[in-house]
Design goal:
The protein contains 14 helices and 13 strands. By secondary structure, the protein is of the alpha/beta class. The strands form two sheets. Strands 9-8-10-11-7-12-13 form a seven-stranded mixed beta sheet, with helices on both faces.
């Protein structure tokens, strides 16, 4: 039975790769689903998954050492390699049955140009210290953008790069740089603990997979303040919202202190989306905020709501709002007006750009 389950899951993985899917979902009561160009579709010729079948499929690729932890914690994250791909996995229970979501991660790390990102993002990799945040909803390509930035440093500079992830997604090869990749759960107990330890590991660059709590944010800001270049991600929708989210993590009596700290170390925010493309596939739309003196002042003063105005008026510096990018894509025929409106931050002002 185990061999059959292994062969069956291999069929699903192969299909996802050939269909250029982003995710696979295994849930009891429905056929196995894959997400292609942002839409969920059934795997052809598949039947509704039973509770027994779900367990067989998922346990066929779950590492042995995680099976007991999964029964205790009721959910577990891990990653594994398969042919030319890696898969980031979350296994969980729903309505008492085991389920899994698998995210596809190409082993090949694409560069900034191939991703369609503005070349100005390479400027972030040229700093010796500071804080860079890549934001967007789940499935917007944040990890791919981070990997492109880290690999740019890896291929051009002699640095020690430390990555802290849960789980490890892209696997880097040592090039010009030396890279230490640490996974929460197997190599360290937490993001915050790994960040504190990083100070004793002689890093030049630190990648923090996600800032989940106050302790992690505090440690990441301290690293950036003490002469390190720090990259991280957040689940926010805009540059202004990103600053608010970071500050709101702290209790009110500490918010002014950390507003000043964030303003002093922040280099920029990239807020991105993957938009369905006319004719198939998806196109990356990214809002770019480069921190200048005006934005530093707004963050210190708690006037983050004014950041979009600075972005709109600082195009000469390389900044661009998400709505402006969407309007350009509509005019070029890359995306539909309907999709652009669905992803727009301010639909009312967006319509004025298009019409």
């Amino acid at each position: 039975m185990a061999e059959n389950s292994t062969a069956e899951i291999a069929r699903y993985l192969d299909l996802a790769v050939t269909q250029n899917a982003s995710d696979i979902h295994i849930l009891v009561g429905i056929p196995v689903m894959v997400r292609v160009d942002g839409k969920l579709i059934e795997v052809p010729n598949s039947q509704a998954v039973t509770a027994e079948k779900a367990g067989q499929l998922i346990f066929s690729f779950m590492p042995e050492h995680l099976k007991s932890a999964f029964q205790q914690k009721r959910e577990v994250d891990f990653s594994f390699g398969y042919k030319a791909m890696r898969f980031r996995v979350n296994v969980y229970f729903e309505k008492g049955s085991i389920a899994a979501s698998l995210r596809l991660i190409p082993k090949e790390i694409r560069n900034i140009e191939d991703l369609g990102l503005p070349p100005i993002l390479e400027k972030f990799t040229e700093h010796n210290q500071g804080f860079v945040i890549i934001t967007g909803p789940t499935g917007s390509g944040k990890s791919t953008t981070l990997a492109a930035l880290i690999n740019r440093i890896n291929s051009t500079q002699k640095k020690h790069i430390v990555t802290i992830e849960d789980p490890i997604e892209y696997v880097f090869e040592h090039q010009q740089s030396v890279i230490s990749q640490r996974e929460v759960g197997s190599d360290t107990n937490s993001f915050a603990r790994a960040l504190r330890s990083a100070l004793r590991e002689d890093p030049d660059v630190v990648l923090v997979g996600e800032m989940r709590d106050m302790e992690t944010v505090d440690a990441a800001l301290t690293l950036a303040e003490t002469g390190h270049l720090v990259f991280t991600t957040l689940h926010t929708n805009s540059a202004a919202e990103t600053a608010d989210r970071i500050i709101s993590i702290f209790p009110p009596h500490l918010q002014q202190q950390f507003s000043s700290q964030l303003a002093s170390v922040l280099l920029g925010v990239v807020s991105q989306r993957l938009i369905p493309k006319v004719g198939g596939g998806r196109v990356l739309a990214a809002e770019i905020m480069l921190v200048n003196s005006a934005i530093r002042s707004l963050i210190r003063e708690g006037k983050n709501y004014q950041i979009p105005n600075v972005i709109q008026t600082a195009a000469a510096e390389g900044m661009i709002s998400l709505d402006k990018v969407l309007a350009e894509f509509v005019s070029q025929g890359q995306i539909t007006l309907e999709d652009a409106l669905n992803y727009s931050i301010d639909p009312k002002s967006f319509k004025m750009m298009v019409y």
